[in-house]
Amino acid sequence: MQIRVGYDLIYECCQPTPMIVTLNIHPDRAGDIIVPDTMSTDPQVPLTHYMDGYGNKCTRLVAPAGQIRIGAEAVVRDSGFPDPVAEDAQQLAVEELPHETLVYLLGSRYCETDRLAGFAWAKFGDVAGGWQRVQAVVDFVHDHLRFSYPDARPTRTALDAFTEGKAVCRDFAHLSITLCRALNIPARYCTGYLGDIGVPRDPAPMDFSAWFEVFLGGRWYTFDARHNTPRIGRIVIARGRDASDVAITSTFGPHQLRQFKVWTDEVVG
Amino acid sequence: MQIRVGYDLIYECCQPTPMIVTLNIHPDRAGDIIVPDTMSTDPQVPLTHYMDGYGNKCTRLVAPAGQIRIGAEAVVRDSGFPDPVAEDAQQLAVEELPHETLVYLLGSRYCETDRLAGFAWAKFGDVAGGWQRVQAVVDFVHDHLRFSYPDARPTRTALDAFTEGKAVCRDFAHLSITLCRALNIPARYCTGYLGDIGVPRDPAPMDFSAWFEVFLGGRWYTFDARHNTPRIGRIVIARGRDASDVAITSTFGPHQLRQFKVWTDEVVG
Amino acid sequence: MQIRVGYDLIYECCQPTPMIVTLNIHPDRAGDIIVPDTMSTDPQVPLTHYMDGYGNKCTRLVAPAGQIRIGAEAVVRDSGFPDPVAEDAQQLAVEELPHETLVYLLGSRYCETDRLAGFAWAKFGDVAGGWQRVQAVVDFVHDHLRFSYPDARPTRTALDAFTEGKAVCRDFAHLSITLCRALNIPARYCTGYLGDIGVPRDPAPMDFSAWFEVFLGGRWYTFDARHNTPRIGRIVIARGRDASDVAITSTFGPHQLRQFKVWTDEVVG
Amino acid sequence: MQIRVGYDLIYECCQPTPMIVTLNIHPDRAGDIIVPDTMSTDPQVPLTHYMDGYGNKCTRLVAPAGQIRIGAEAVVRDSGFPDPVAEDAQQLAVEELPHETLVYLLGSRYCETDRLAGFAWAKFGDVAGGWQRVQAVVDFVHDHLRFSYPDARPTRTALDAFTEGKAVCRDFAHLSITLCRALNIPARYCTGYLGDIGVPRDPAPMDFSAWFEVFLGGRWYTFDARHNTPRIGRIVIARGRDASDVAITSTFGPHQLRQFKVWTDEVVG
Predict the structure, then answer these.
(1) What is the ipTM of this complex?
(2) pTM for the complete prediction?
(3) CA of A118 vs chain D CAs: smallest distance (Å)
């Protein structure tokens, strides 16, 4: 299967404004790239790419005063299979976890593991470890939160989402991640493209999506508490501890988002 | 100058309990080690060392049921000079910052940059960038917070410290870091040894200390909002985004701290 | 001057749902009523009026399953004068305050006086007490917060508004109230009608408004940190410690607001 | 049964400092007073008594610079019966609640009903209304929180207690109250004397205690989530929406508490 993905964003700044853009397809999909997602801007400005500490490819630029358009389009090969399900995947004891997964047990900006640990153990302590426990967390979060785009806000933490009951996809991910970490299961945040392949078309305008991965039985597995069903065609852009690490754009000055278009479609015929 | 540092800790667990210990002297002091801080435990258990994503040397072990004593002592060569002061150090524009410093502009568990940015700009926006602005932040934090050991708590964030007015050294660091980041100055958290060399002896029992570093004019500088004066003989153990990254010990199960001794003294002739 | 005020609201509930409605013009305006604001509903349901502990006239009803329309219209006589300004009004010492004002020094749901007291004294401690100090608070709040209707949310506290920088009229009031109370000035929350008499027409749809009152020199004075200018024609509906006490409607079950119309206009000719 | 209660407090202020003291036995016990709790101070200062909006008897004074001792002792007649248990007490529908109970459904400073409502309904929505539901709340709170005097802090809300898991008696009350209100059961906070009559002596120094009352079946019932067992000899001092309303002392200036003695004992023979 081939998937076409892309974005076309317009920002407006009143003065030259540095930006970090985390919009490149993740390097671990390099072997699947048919048409590369070469970022371009209008007006053209110098772009500097670098890898952050989590292995994501980021881009730095200075937006000029006025408007700047940032866009790219790619075609990516995909297995066409839904997210793997491995109901017998085991939770590793903490002492068996690889070193590099340990950072995904710690608290982070939007994941207050220290504040939700008591609830996590009270609610999920009796569920067998491994896949079932993660699925129990995801079922809980899926039911407890109600998707509400107008109520989105950038400062909302996992605890806020838990208490407010309203969420967008990043909040579903944050709350799930926080509960998993509290239960000693490494969990990390993902952003990327997720189209409607194999499911009814979502009438809302397309957006980037967020989900998460947990480390079970020696590898990372994808979970998505918003949709709570395996999906086809996720294209990861970036992974991190939470949304703070992988904001689409971090902009160091006042700015307005003037246009926001994202697309993800199967290439047919 | 030579400084003797060490610790002697006793934990008690009711069952075998995995721990991550971040107590080794930072690798960048390797050239200064006269007597190495070889960690030992009683009872003896296997120790595994690894480097985390921030360049700190961490140790993993499984504490057995019952008590475990963890200790080390080292002698370290030190310049004997107080923390450098560089009043003309400039704030780099965001676009000039090295890639690896950018992560220290982002929010983290105890540093809610998104929630204190408005205050930071209202309060410090008019102060000239660079050393003076950092010093203005540190002066503010030093005056605004009152040191109170009995009021310490592990969940306190920078915003909590700001509103409660009570703090221990980690809170002084967190609030300062948060304000600096909000002002686009990379700032990172440090833990380590800090004795009373050159200052009156603190009558309280010795403890590890926390301070922070900012990136100005192309290098990292040490600041300490609790003491707010250059000090002699800091020995860094670990650096990270905040205390969440560099906890002395992360213990994955119920436990009690039974003994806590830390020492830092000049080796006298 | 005569002012016509009214509202026309439609709620939809899926089952019979008890409501408390705080929409009647405040009893202290009884002498100014030309046409009374007799509440009616469609379908007609029994209405029970009562006075709450703050002296407001509230109404209880049970909304049937389906839609219910709640409305009223009144004509009220008004002085036509803007909010009084008394620059020499003094702050009373706490021991001189009347008993009944003391409750307006305490913390409440959306006014965390205990968490903002440190900031309040650091920022306003040097300003002379009385009118000037309140005006300094109001100037600060007016400048620090940015009005943003889409970012409104019911759980936002004064501290949240302070850190987020976004606000609707209730947040402007809550933050001002919190700072005044922390400075030992009794402050209470007001809801009511506020038209555009004497000022340019606001193009946004009309809404109820919120402002606050402080107790200085033996009486209550009106302040409005959102507009920060004396206004003509405020018609108070209710006063309380904060928005928690005087919600337009408190609805004890799931419901949707289907229509929301409010009007406030000078009766011309 | 007769119970002797009293207190002996010493405060130190650096300047004359107004105080509100809420330490008088509640007026609804007036008929049980054998020896009245006449408040006295040393040095003697004028005392003004008043009733607050919740029906509590409060006292105002101005503490002079230096130390002030405030004390009283009373003997009170008591039924000697433990707190009533009424397992068939029904939850009234909101529309059947007396007007004056409605304020105890609303949020308050330390009881964020809006933030814990989702959890409350998810956890207790299936439990039959009335006594059983309140008991389910109290059982949950009793088990979820761990009493810890050293971790007490005045800014801790019900949500904080829920997430931190540590509590003193006021936190047990606040969390229970918040959950009950979220479930549409009026709940109010109580402070008072509670000795060890009929239970093993608590070795900790005596203190005032906090508990709460709920309105079921037309009357108020006492619950105590810290002890979670009916107790003999509660003497109410004050009731309010939460601890913000009924602080033992509200002191309007810097001060130190130098001595704190409270006693509650059965008068024997």
Answers:
(1) 0.92
(2) 0.87
(3) 7
